[in-house]
Structure formats: C-alpha cells, structure tokens
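# step 3/5: fold
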Amino acid sequence: MGCIMMSSVLKVSIAAAVVLMVSGCASPNGWRAIGGSKSDAVVRLSYELLGKQVADESDGLKLAEQRCGYWGFSGAKAFELETKTCIDEQCHSYIITREYQCVD
C-alpha cells in the first residue's frame, strides 16, 4: 500500500511541475521596476519578452503610477520609445525596457 501511495503522490507532483513549467512559458514575465530618477521624474520598467508574448501595457502603467506615487506624483505617462535587448544567442527572448514620466 505504501508504494501505491508514493506512486500517486509522485505522479501528482510531476503533473503539477509540468503545469507550472508550461504556464511559465506561455505568459511573459511581468513588468518590474529597474531604475529611475526622482529628480528627473522618470521611472524605468522592463519585462522579459518570450516569443510573441507581450506584457500588458496597463500593468506597466499601473506599476509606473505606483512608483511615481512613492515620490509624491499623482500619475505617469509612458514615453513612446522602448528598447529591445536580445538576451539569448538566437534572439528568441528579449528584455523590453520602457520609461515613464511622472506627472502631477
């Protein structure tokens, strides 16, 4: 009975690990703050682009507004330009970086 129970637990654990790995590949990493300047009222955010998946722009704006709020600003506005930096030899993955202007 112990071997049967262990086998079931192992199968469930493996299935859970596979689901987590597949879901991690299916969606991009979220936006994260990587820098900025309070004196320039600029927040710099980035996310990892995997394949053709892109991060939700509204999530980036929300994070920028939150960061700007820490500095006493009431909002943020995205600059039009973004940088795209290849992070693997075949350029299948990129780091996308965008700056946001903090506004009142």
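# step 4/5: annotate
Residues 9-28 have pLDDT under 50 and may be disordered.
# step 5/5: archive (pending)
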